Amino acid sequence: MSNAAILPATARAPAAQPSGVAAAPPIIEVRGVSKVYGDVVALKSIDLVFETGKMTSLLGPSGCGKTTLLKIVAGLLKPNQGEVLVHGRPVTGPGPERAFVFQDFALMPWATVLRNAAFGLEMQGRPRAEREDKARHYIAEVGLAGFEDKYPHELSGGMRQRVGLARALAVDADVLLMDEPFSAVDEQTRRKFQEDLIRLREVENKTFLFVTHSIEEAVYVSDRIIMLSPRPGRVSQIIEPDIPRGDDPEAIRRDPVYLDTVDEIWHGLKHYVE
Ligand SMILES: Nc1ncnc2c1ncn2[C@@H]1O[C@H](COP(=O)(O)OP(=O)(O)OP(=O)(O)O)[C@@H](O)[C@H]1O
């Protein structure tokens, strides 16, 4: 048994605080959310809370409703039952405090890296100088300084992905929602990006919620892994891998807690794979 805290699905409320210490309110609350598409029950009675500054991944068998849940939090889909609160306010659609990083990065092929990264700010009607300053800052932050004037077709998949992330960071949303952000790139790029994501989370103090199919990836980057059961998707388990994420990103992959947690999740999931 590893040091990962494996919590039953019912253990969703934030831990009680010692007396005198104010509990930080959760940034996102998902309350009794169910979603059906025609006859397909995609999600059933999902209750979750997300704390500020944490990285959470959604993991589970194909079709269990991971993307559906992410889109409901983003305000791109409405639940049939239940509600999502962000900063205590009900979500009725997309909002500036949540940025969505799409699987295909949703870049505009006719616009430069700078314009693509500044696109969210352009939509918000910010002045050009301000949006370009911010976009340049985040382009550098994601390792693309010098590529501001390039077009998406001149970039590798990994670089395009970074532009998508720079765009999401530039709007200064509190919550970054990512739908399999690493799926379209090669393994080396993916690993580098996972390392960068851990670093970014520390620098930026954002709340990240992302969907992945990769057990290794979920355990590598996440403070918390929410396991969904096969359709209808319910929360089956919440895992909090207690892995030190210090200066050496390679050390994480050798950490016994990392290795044991990957193994435990795989044993739990493998009977769903034909
Ligand atoms: N627009 C839609 N219309 C009908 N059914 C849908 C729609 N979107 C999703 N579904 C169904 O709802 C279920 C959950 O889909 P969802 O994409 O959320 O799952 P997922 O866990 O993200 O899947 P995957 O791991 O394969 O990407 C699936 O059975 C899917 O076929």
UniProtKB/TrEMBL annotation:
InterPro entries: AAA+_ATPase, ABC_transporter-like_ATP-bd, ABC_transporter-like_CS, ABC_transporter_ATP-bind, P-loop_NTPase
Gene3D superfamilies xref list: P-loop containing nucleotide triphosphate hydrolases
Keyword hit for Cell inner membrane: no
MF GO annotations: ATP binding; ATP hydrolysis activity
One Pfam family per UniProt: ABC_tran
Keywords, comma-separated and alphabetical: ATP-binding, Nucleotide-binding, Transport
Residues annotated as domain ABC transporter: 28-255
Family to which the UniProt record says this protein belongs: Belongs to the ABC transporter superfamily.
Identification of the protein by name: NitT/TauT family transport system ATP-binding protein
Provenance organism: Aurantimonas endophytica
